[in-house]
Amino acid sequence: MSSDLLWKLAVQRISFLKTDEKRKVLAYCINSGRMPERKTLVDLIRRDFRSSYKKESILHEAENDLSLMIKQGIFTLSVDDEAYPEKLRSIHNPPFLLYGRGETLLSDVLNISVVGTRKATGLAMEKAFALSFHLARSGAAVTSGLASGTDSAAHSGALAGKGYTLAVFGCGIDRIYPSSSKDLAARILDEGGTLLSEYPPGIPPVRYNFPERNRIVSALSEALVVVESPARSGALITADFALEQGRDVFVLNAASPSPSAGEGTNSLIEDGAVVVESADDVLRELSYSVKSRDRSPVLLSHSGSRATGRFLADRFRAELEEREISREGVYYSL
């Protein structure tokens, strides 16, 4: 492995830097062969910061990350690598570095994100599983967040359909959260899927990581399907990111028996989100056609579905601004 990789791992450990700032610091490290002093770092990013910065500790952590990557077969993609997903690179402040396990990311298939509440009803779980199963059988990839409830049903359905599924973490790539998803994560790897995170090894699943993670879930896909969501749910944050990124947003008709369980998805529908009943509906809305179940979806002519055209993109702005998610120098309010 090149010394450039070690510098990338070190720069990614400076968590308060934006991606463009990390690019500047990486160039300095490669050219000088050392981590910048604090004053030099301030000059490079053109702003002061309050966060702790201990360059010796950061470099030591990066060396440990490199050793772990070799042991566990972890790969990385930096934002300027050719294989970095173009859909993700085009968003505001894309991840500087991605850590992955399993297959490298597929760029030549239709990718659909399927999300919803962790406390999904039985009916919603069944519907999420069936949707993902048929998407996989149609040749589409399924992306979700490995959480309990809807996410797990989506990944499991894609695996049952013998398809490719991608799980995006809200913690380090060496951790599985929740622990109840360990067997599912192992199956994803065993059956040709991918585990992905922007967080260095060892980073715990703290609360503010998940909205950050959700922007990746939405950005990697052509469209987002929300299965079931209460009024205040991470799935609604993902839906808002999807709209900001120009992705299509659908609501799966799960017909929740609990009014509160479907309150969030019902509000999406009221504001114009397109309701879908099946994988075929999703593909049709996206102007994709599947000639046989052994072939990948074929694009007919995609200029945006009714979901994007009808949806009121400002639906959740006020709510998100009230609970702004921020880390020093990085803001995710919309």
From TrEMBL:
The lineage of its organism: Bacteria, Pseudomonadati, Spirochaetota, Spirochaetia, Spirochaetales. InterPro entries: DprA (IPR003488), DrpA_SLOG (IPR057666). This is DNA processing protein. It holds the Pfam family DNA_processg_A. It comes from the Bacteria. One of its GO terms (biological process) is DNA-mediated transformation. Belongs to the DprA/Smf family. It comes from Spirochaeta isovalerica. Residues 77-286 form the Smf/DprA SLOG domain.
